[in-house]
């Protein structure tokens, strides 16, 4: 940690002196792991468009999609080292920085995306944007993707017992690990950029993701069945390096805040549209079969995953869980 802190201090010092000396625009590198035609991909491009319009000649935003610049596992360190200024990891990927965000991975916590949105916009939700400041990370906004579906390379995927013994790719989240263990399955943490190949070669049997990620990564072409479980959520926190952010000239920070607010609104509208569109495109492609669950099926999944909550309750904080649950009405 001291080595990282030392490097962080140095790169922040360098970043300050170079932006103070140079006449050119401040470069804001925004790195992410998904395709451009996804909610996050579209949000990043909208942020660039608005930021450069509001701060002409003062700011240049460079967007790097598809893990091109940094993938999972590298992007947070890169942010702390000043190699990139903005990233938007899924809320499942902050385990190492705070336990509080594990909240969002609790299975069947939110009834729908409207509930997720209500919680994120509440005081408790907004507070979480500051939960990692002591680790050098400043949250700027939540961006939606959507609810997760479950897919496998098997014909039958209806009830929890159908996934017993199967290997699943998961994001780097201890909650998701516990979720699949509760189902009697074998979770394996893998970077997003490695999932397609892992599914194709049978390294894993299945995965969980949104319609948008499944379609844009072509997971439906290497899976047999997708069950519409809606058992969890993939949303993002746009985060920046707190020191870099605090050190920006006031007018630049204000402009970037405004651009972020517009990009957030746009990304969240796109999220619902893109997931609905991609679900239909997956059905039309007719490669993987899309399975609907009955109320009874959903109840069985819910019950099978329920033990996960107890395990993480203390780390997350019971009050936070209650507040999130309250957003379901
Ligand atoms: C995943 O790893 O499956 C997602 O978090 C990717 C993303 O950024 O949507």
Q: What can you see in these coordinates?
A:
It is a single chain. It contains 13 helices and 11 strands. With 329 residues, the protein is an alpha/beta fold. The strands form 2 sheets. It has a 6-stranded mixed β-sheet with strand order 7-6-8-5-9-11, with helices on both faces. The protein is 46% helix and 17% strand. The longest helix has 36 residues. The site of (2S)-2-hydroxybutanedioic acid (LMR) has 10 residues, from loops. InterPro entries: DctP_fam, TRAP_DctP, TRAP_DctP_sf. It comes from Allopusillimonas soli. Keywords: Signal, Transport. This is TRAP transporter substrate-binding protein.
What descriptive keywords fit this protein?
alpha/beta; 5-stranded mixed β-sheet; globular; 17% strand; 329 residues
What's the gist of this structure?
This protein is of the alpha/beta class. The chain is built from 13 helices and eleven strands. It has a six-stranded mixed beta sheet, with helices on both faces.
């Amino acid at each position: 940690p001291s080595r990282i802190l030392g490097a962080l201090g140095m790169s922040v010092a360098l970043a300050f002196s170079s932006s103070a000396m140079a006449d050119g625009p401040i470069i804001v590198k925004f790195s992410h792991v998904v395709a451009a035609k996804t909610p996050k991909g579209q949000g990043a491009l909208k942020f660039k468009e608005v930021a450069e319009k509001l701060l002409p000649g003062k700011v240049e935003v460079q967007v790097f999609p598809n893990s091109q610049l940094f993938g999972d596992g590298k992007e947070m360190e890169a942010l702390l080292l000043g190699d990139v200024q903005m990233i938007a990891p899924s809320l499942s990927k902050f385990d190492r920085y705070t336990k509080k965000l594990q909240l969002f991975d609790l299975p069947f916590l939110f009834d729908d995306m409207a509930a997720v949105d209500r919680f994120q916009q509440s005081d408790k939700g907004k507070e979480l944007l500051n939960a990692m400041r002591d680790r050098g990370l400043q949250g700027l906004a939540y961006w939606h993707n959507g609810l997760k579906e479950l897919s496998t390379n098997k014909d039958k995927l209806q009830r929890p017992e159908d996934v017993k013994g199967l290997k699943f790719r998961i994001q780097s989240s201890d909650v998701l690990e516990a979720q699949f263990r509760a189902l009697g399955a074998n979770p394996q943490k893998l970077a997003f950029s490695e999932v397609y190949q892992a599914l194709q070669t049978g390294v894993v049997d299945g995965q969980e993701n949104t319609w948008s990620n499944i379609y844009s990564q072509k997971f439906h072409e290497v899976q047999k069945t997708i069950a519409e479980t809606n058992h969890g959520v993939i949303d993002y926190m746009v985060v920046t390096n707190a020191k870099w952010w605090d050190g920006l000239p006031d007018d630049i920070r204000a402009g970037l805040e405004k651009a972020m607010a517009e990009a957030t609104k746009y990304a969240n509208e796109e999220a619902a549209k893109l997931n609905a569109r991609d679900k239909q495109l997956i059905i039309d492609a007719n490669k993987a079969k899309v399975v609907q669950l009955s109320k009874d099926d959903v109840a069985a999944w819910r019950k099978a995953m329920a033990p996960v909550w107890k395990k993480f309750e203390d780390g997350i904080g019971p009050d936070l869980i209650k507040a999130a649950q309250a957003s379901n009405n």
